[in-house]
Design goal:
The chain is an alpha/beta fold. The chain has 14 helices and 13 strands. The strands form three sheets. It has a six-stranded parallel beta sheet with strand order 2-1-3-4-5-6, with helices on both faces. Strand 10, helix 11 and strand 11 form a beta-alpha-beta unit. It starts with a strand and ends with a strand.
Length: 320
Amino acid sequence: MDVLTLTNAADAPFLNQQQAALERRGVRFETLSVAGDATGENARGPREYLRFFRTVRRELDREYDLIHAHYGLTAPMALAQRRVPVVCSLWGSDVHGPVAPVSRFCAPFCDEVIVMSEAMADALGRECRVIPDGVDLETFRPGSQAAARDRVGWPTDEHTVLFPYAPDRSVKNYPRAKRIVDRAADRLERPVSLRTISGVDHDEMPHYMNAADALLVTSHSEGSPNAVKEAMACDLPVVAVDVGDVRERLEDVSPSCVADADAVLVDGLTTILESGARSNGRKAAREVSLEHTTDAILEVYESVTGLERIDQRRTRVTRS
């Protein structure tokens, strides 16, 4: 099966992991990415997306079985033709944020729409496939906290709270995370450190997960935050605002805390740091393993194309 991927984040680890897993199942990908960065001096704007139309149009001279548009702003380029089926994956901010109108307009014209949570499907107002990004349980697994702290260079005489985002990513709401950690620190005898991690190799993230005492998520909006699922796979307790599918993911995970009020988040974080306990999250993380989500996405691909891979051969299937 030959798939053309359209994205504005070709270096996203979860996208690369997903594609690698699908390639092992017989899918071939060609990936086109919108020029520019999300923020900064090279931030992409309308001009870059308009140029992307031409890039996609030229690529469609080749034969593809489907187009998979990742993020709502790439859907118009995929839908500029009607010869090849279109699957659109929405990531969260393209349903809840300022580009939501583009996603809502394009969704009815797509052959399938994949979202990360039921809340996203409700917000979109149409039938969707709910398939959260999968977590690689071989990469993200529990390990020695002492060895992990030695590897990442963190001291052993402090409580450490992991905030796995850049502080300047406004949607992640770092000021609230700092406020919560500062209030929890006032209640504890040992010092508490809020560690922000961004820009490191994704394969290094399990060491930070195992080195930390808790993961803190305070985002304004999310779809299905990968950091939460990765923390679960490492048995790292999670304290999070009620965003995306976090409450659903952490329903049977203990210790954990999901709340909207700062006071409850502070209480939950304080209790977790005092106990020093790890969670039972890995068991729940198996529901969103990379293999599980790969099966679900492959089912979508086969449904919209009528192609199935049987004994290494590509066979077209007629569906009633």
